[in-house]
Amino acid sequence: MSDGIKNISKIILSIITFAGLIFITQFLFMPIGQRLTTWKISTMDSNFSAKTVELPFLTHVKESGLWTFSTAVYPKDLQADVLHIPRINGYAFEVELNGHKIHQQGDFQNPTANIWNYSFLIDIPKGLLLEENIFIIRSFALHDVGFIMTPTLGQRSDFNLIIELQNFLSDSFSYIMIGASLFLGILLILVGRNGKTIKHAYIQFGLACIFFAVYNFEYTYRLYSGPLEVYLWLRKLLFASILLSIGFMIEGILSYMYHQKIPSQIKFCYSIGIIPVLFMNDYPALAAIIKVYNLIIIFITLYMIKLVIKSPKTQLRFSISFLSLTILHTVIVFIFRVPTLVFINYGMSFILIGLSYALVLDFDNLEIKNTQLNYKINIDPLTKAYNREYLDALHYTQDDVLIFIDIDYFKIYNDTLGHDKGDLLLKDLVQHTKKLIRSEDAIIRYGGDEFIIYLKQISLAQAQDKMIAIKAYVVSNFEYVDLSYGMSNFVTTLYETIKKADQDMYLMKKEKRRDNTSH
Fold first, then answer.
1. Quick check: bond before 284 cis, omega within 30?
2. What is the pTM assigned to this prediction?
């Protein structure tokens, strides 16, 4: 399959996954019970005329203030005991039924509760629900107001499970993402600082995860009721965090997929471009400038998709494509005030999975390269025995045996038959020895025609039997030569053990010379 087809297939898969996510969430947020769709809206804003709307409904406000939604309800099921409000945009709200306040969320004096991404199930006191009822919902709008989902009436037993699922997918999942993003962000930065491969990309991705974790507080349900001025700064910092997260994500993609860096001039302009957000002095003004930045984010996201499509690396192609779709969708929702759910959290969850997979894959590749490099370093190129550096990696005990071998008359063999034959002798000795020893044992070329055999957890008698067999093979298959050897259990140090075995080997050589002289 060509790279172009692979690119297209992964993008198509991300589109299908995104469509599936929309379908699943629409199913989970499908209204249960009697839908309350028609509401009259009024506000203290003199520029707004009271009107009747069909829910879901969402609008941007020019001035922060209290909005009132009212509807007449004729319950089909007089046994209804709860009012379900799946999504309400506002920062404090109260519910009134037939002149009685039955619920309040947040503080109207300091209307800064983050409640828009949460499903509420409000108990209806017994006896208040009549044949004809007036529901009034007052919501304090800082920059927008409305209902993303339609409120419904029903019985608590029908809502218990669905409420848990809805709030898990929105609120609880946000906290999971905060923890996961922070953990992976810190891990990537530590790996980037200490690692030697694609170091810059890991750091950029790590910073992107950390700033996204900060931004994720925007999606959590919070009953904060502090001063509006403090909350305004919090909202500005949260939006600045997503801008920084996207910027670091772009730089990480460039570094990871193309081994390039964003020019310092562009990074400077991007950083300076965030400053206007911090100077907005009220919520409607902040919402207005965020609309402009959302348009910019669309172009940045399209650029991100372009980078992914053109890159030869495939590890992050699906996850970044999916994240890009969720960003585009979220921006469009915010710009046009579309009353629907947003999925940027899920997009980032795919990025976290993708980054974790890429990190593991990169370390696997690094491990393979290190193993191959270590193999080249530790293996003698001629005989394929270990070289003497391998001795430093031995984890030996006193029950292990070390045998020191020297080929007698090897120089005569080389001079008589040629060096090629001498090389074949060395290789054949190693190959035959490997057949006689176990996988946990090793043969090591110590230098020239000297070898060490390391035998793990074996008696000296058993080691002697193996050495006799090796010696017999060499003598019977190669003329002129013989083997001398010495063996020892491991003593205090590796050096002392080699020295002891070497001394025993020389004693054997000396004995052979004495025998030859006597003959």
1. no
2. 0.71
